[in-house]
Amino acid sequence: xxxxxxxxxDVIAKRIVDYREKNGAxxxxxxxxxxxxxxxxxxxxxxxxxxxx
Length: 53
Hints:
Layout (H helix, E strand, L loop, with lengths): L9 H14 L16 H7 L7
């Protein structure tokens, strides 16, 4: 069983963690597109699987 998301490998996962450490929690789902490597195509596949609070 996988605990990851389709299209997100180790490199992008590290970039997400680094982004959050630098900028704090995401304030909107769309903000994840500020992470290098997450463009419109990957975002379209992810947006229904992520939430922010």
